[in-house]
Specification:
Radius of gyration of chain A: 21 Å
Shape of chain A: globular
Strand order of the largest sheet of chain A: 3-2-4-5-7-6-13
CATH class of the largest domain in chain A: Alpha Beta
Number of strands of chain B: 10
CATH superfamily of the largest domain in chain A: Thiamin diphosphate (ThDP)-binding fold, Pyr/PP domains
Strand content of chain B: 15-25%
Order of helices and strands of chain A: EHEHEHEHEHEHEHEHEHEEHEEHEHEH
Mean pLDDT of chain A: 97
CATH architecture of chain B: 3-Layer(aba) Sandwich
Low-confidence stretches of chain A: none
Order of helices and strands of chain B: HEEHEHHEEEHHEHEHHEE
Distance between the termini of chain A: 52 Å
Low-confidence stretches of chain B: none
CATH class of chain B: Alpha Beta
Number of domains of chain B: 1
Largest sheet of chain A: 7 strands, mixed
Strand order of the largest sheet of chain B: 2-1-3-4-8-7-9-10
Number of helices of chain B: 9
Strand content of chain A: 15-25%
Helix content of chain B: 25-40%
Structural class of chain A: alpha/beta
Oligomer: heterodimer
Mean pLDDT of chain B: 94
CATH architecture of the largest domain in chain A: 3-Layer(aba) Sandwich
Distance between the termini of chain B: 38 Å
Chain lengths: 360, 270
């Protein structure tokens, strides 16, 4: 039976992890996501999960490597500086193709920054972060419900592709309380056999080795080619987005996560004044919904990107638009959440520039 | 490499390569201790009949591809993170036997935090620590355990305290932590020392089967290539120069620190 509760986003993600059959969690406290490890230390342990607070994020991500390599459903969470510390391990996990779930409850940076919500880690999440050619599957929740739902989805995608999955949230989504429904989900039906895991070499098979080292360049290129083929499959199968009032839209806002929630208010305000705005909300930031943006670019007057950063996803929107129509941008940084009214006034400036054919 | 063929007709078999070692030429330099330690470790795993339940963790360093030689399930860790990876494995597979195999840079420099905290948690696995006082794989730079005065490519005038500090005794440090149960320092530079090492490895796996805490075996080893010596010279240099600072013997047994170290290496004969 599904169950409806009122919870913080961080707690909802933690509760979903338990229900999704997460075997083990290693983590290190950091604001604004410490509720995850606190909730799991209580509820997770009581319900059979291995939950450990360890010496650093560096250790945590390498423990995830070990546990995922041994076949467990493994998860860690952190916030921006902690996620930076994990990047070496994430690169190793991506190359060794270990399924696991990571969550970044993004705070303002760079550096130690602030503990307020931010989307400043888009590039790190989507374009690399660690060294080498790899991708995480990146899910961007926009509600407490999705903080929970994407945990189930994340584990299943990780297993399906043997690829690490990152939930990229922000401090507000982690801290705010909303209604959340936990679906029926039987982990036994979802967990896949992992014959590649290091569980002890039995006489019927050669040793299983988890490694990201391939000293022969030809071998290393083969691994890269296989990874790239996998990424092409992910790009083909797993693009997720939400379209809000785009059918008749002249101006399309593009925003993810918390920014997309604020943009819904912007659309309401605009439509009250007879302006036809719509929203493309990317749900997967990798793979990115370039196609739908490209299609919309054939019939709208312009795109306006709203982010809680200096302008990162806007580069992907421009790739999708490919010069067909103007692309505007507005962002706040350092943990500041823009208001609907200030966004609307920036879109008005953008529209008047389009009308006067001024460079945007 | 040319195959050496020997006619074994009518000869008595006195030693066979264990099933736990693969049929692969090792890449280690002539005289290097790694090959011996690999062989002894795998012999113990075969003797104890635990091939199907042992999972090893390889480090970054010369033994980075140890899994090519060890016929067991293994994971290759990032530099210094072997004990974190081993923690991940052991915590989800508590009935399996887990060991890490790490060099001095891996365990005592970049992985200091992971080493200390794994030992402090009393993780039930074996840490094998090869200390040869030099970074062999990257071409002979200073290690955290390079002894004072030791010439390496990054200490061309010899290691001196003012710039590089003192060689670190990680084995003594972790022995003070309540999580460790058996901590010993061994070597493989003589046949007798090899036999002592084998006993220490056997003992450690038996302790692990009883979930008594972390075991750490430091093996004072050589690096003929990095030290720029012949294997024989290297083993003599090791006795004369490494042992005074890294004396062989048990440091902690049955969870208790040993006051006087029992000699395990044979007395040096001039």
């Amino acid at each position: 039976m599904s169950e409806i509760r009122l919870m913080k986003g961080n707690e909802a993600a933690a509760e979903a992890a338990i229900r999704a059959g997460c075997d083990v969690y290693f983590g290190y406290p950091i604001t604004p996501q410490s509720e995850v490890i606190e909730y799991l230390s209580d509820q997770g342990r009581k319900r059979g999960m291995i939950v450990m607070q360890v010496e650093s994020e560096v250790a945590a991500i390498n423990m995830i490597y070990g546990a995922a390599g041994a076949g467990a459903r493994a998860m860690t969470t952190s916030s921006s500086p902690g996620i930076s510390l994990m990047q070496e391990g994430i690169s190793y996990i991506a190359c060794a193709e270990l399924p696991c779930l990571l969550m970044n409850v993004n705070r303002g940076g760079p550096g130690l920054g602030t503990i307020q919500p931010s989307q400043g880690d888009y590039f790190q999440s989507v374009k690399g972060g660690g060294h080498g050619d790899y991708h995480l599957i990146v899910l961007a929740p926009a509600s407490v419900q999705e903080m929970a739902s994407f945990v189930y989805l994340g584990f299943d995608l990780a297993d399906k592709y043997r690829n690490p999955v990152l939930i990229l949230a922000d401090g507000a989504l982690g801290q705010m309380m909303e209604k959340v429904e936990f679906p029926d989900y039987d982990p036994k039906e979802h967990k896949k056999p992992k014959p590649w895991a290091t569980t002890g070499k039995t006489p019927d098979r050669p040793p299983n080795v988890i490694t990201s080292l391939h000293l022969q360049t030809e071998d290393m290129e083969k691994i890269n080619i296989r990874l790239q083929e996998k990424y092409r499959q992910i790009e083909k199968n797993e693009v997720r987005y939400e379209l809000i009032e785009t059918d008749d839209a002249d101006i399309v806002l593009v925003a993810y996560g918390l920014a997309s929630r604020i943009c819904q208010r912007v659309v309401e305000l605009a439509r009250q004044n007879g302006l036809k705005f719509g929203i493309v909300r990317p749900i997967t930031l990798y793979p990115y919904p370039y196609q739908v943006i490209s299609e919309l670019a054939d019939r709208v007057q312009g795109f306006f990107v709203v982010e809680m950063n200096a302008g990162q996803m806007v580069e992907d929107v421009k790739i999708g638009v490919n010069g067909k129509v103007p692309v505007g941008f507005y962002g706040r940084m350092g943990g500041i959440i823009p208001t609907a009214e200030e966004i609307l006034s920036k879109v008005h400036e953008f529209i008047s520039k389009i009308e006067t054919k001024e460079k945007v | 490499m040319e195959e050496i063929k020997v006619d074994t007709n009518g000869m008595e078999i006195v030693w066979e390569k264990p099933e736990t070692l693969t049929d692969t030429y090792m890449h280690y330099c002539p005289g290097c201790g790694h090959g011996v330690v690999h062989k002894i470790l795998m012999e113990v795993i075969e003797d104890l009949g635990i091939q199907d339940k042992t999972i090893g963790v390889a480090p970054v360093g010369c033994s980075v591809i140890a899994y090519n030689y060890m016929n067991i399930d293994m994971q290759e860790a990032a530099h210094g993170r072997a004990t974190a990876v081993a923690t991940g494995i052991k915590r989800v597979l508590p009935d399996k036997l887990v060991f890490t195999y790490q060099g001095d840079g891996d365990l005592a420099a970049i992985g200091t935090a992971e080493t200390i905290h794994a030992c402090n948690r009393g993780e039930n696995f074996l840490i094998i620590f090869i200390n040869n006082g030099i970074y062999g794989m990257t071409g002979g730079q200073m290690a955290p355990t390079s002894i004072l005065g030791m010439v390496t490519s990054t200490t061309p005038e010899g290691r001196e305290v003012k710039t590089q500090g003192y060689p670190i005794k990680m084995t003594e440090i972790v022995a003070t932590l309540p999580g460790t149960y058996y901590v010993t320092r061994q070597s493989v530079h003589t046949p007798a020392a090899v036999r002592y090492l084998k006993k220490a490895i056997e003992k450690s796996f038996k302790i692990q089967m009883e979930n008594k805490g972390t075991c750490l075996i430091e093996i004072v080893s050589n690096c003929p290539s990095g030290w720029k010596m012949t294997p024989v010279e290297a083993n003599k240099w090791l006795e004369k120069n490494m042992f005074p600072f890294f004396p062989p013997g048990d440091i902690k047994v049955d969870g208790k620190l040993i006051e006087k170290k029992a000699p395990v290496a044979p007395e040096k004969k001039e």
